[in-house]
Write a structure and sequence with these properties.
Thymidylate Synthase, Chain A; 7-stranded mixed sheet
Length: 262
Amino acid sequence: MRVKNIRGHFIDALNNKEFVTDRTGQKTIELLGASFIADEDAIFGTPNLSYISRELQWYESQSTNIKDIDINPPKAWVATANEHGEINSNYGLLIHSEKYHNQFNHAMHELVKNPDSRRATVIYNRPSIWLEYNENGKNDFICTNAVTYYIRDNKVHCVVQMRSNDVVFGYKNDYAWQLHTLHSAAYVLGKRIGTITWQVQNLHVYERHFDLVKHVEEPVPSIQKSIDEATPREWTEASRRHSNHYYDINRNRSFEDWKEEK
C-alpha cells in the first residue's frame, strides 16, 4: 500500500460519510492500523517548506519551547503547549540528547556492528507520558512511538510507528523530519536511503480539512522519488546536507575512523 491508496481511502470515507466525532465534538474521518510506504511528501495539501525548515532547525536545537520555532507558533503547537510554551515533543531531543540516552547514536552503532540487526530502534514515547502529557497545563501525549532502521540491499530503510497522525499537517511535517533523519542515517552508515514505511494506529482528517479531500489535486513529485532517481554523487551530497552536528563523523573524520572508534 502506498500514499495514493491512503488518499483513496479517505476520499471514499468522506463520500460515504464515515464520520467519527473526536473529544472536541469535531467530525473526523479515520483509518485504524494504517500501514503504507511513505512515497509522497503529502497525502492532501502541499508541504510548507519554509515552515518545515524552521521546525527541523528547532528539532535539532532540542528546545522544548515552541516560541523558539517562531514568534507566532502554529495553532497546533499552541494547543499542545502550556502557558509558557513548553511541550514534550521535540523529536531531536527525544532521540539525540543525553537525557534520553543518545538513542540515535546507539542505533547507528548497532548497524555498524551488525548490518542485519533488527535492534536499531529509537523510542520517542515513554511510559511516564501518562504522568507528563498534561503536566503544568500541557496537552502533549507524544504522537510518534518509535522508529527502527534497517540495512537491506545496501540501503537504509526505516519503519515509523505512530500512535496518532493528522493526515494534513501532521503527516507532512512528520514525514519531513523522518526523511531528514533517514538522510543522516544514510550518511553515517555510508549507504543510500531506502523506503520509509509509515504505520499509524489512528490516521485521521479533521472536518476543517474535508475540502482538501473533496478537491484533491494531482500530487507534485515527491522528495523520495527525486532521491531515488538521483545519481550517487547527488544523493551523497544530499545526505551531507541533511546530516547535522550530533555525529562525530561530521568533524573532519572519515567513516572508517568513526566505525573503528565506535
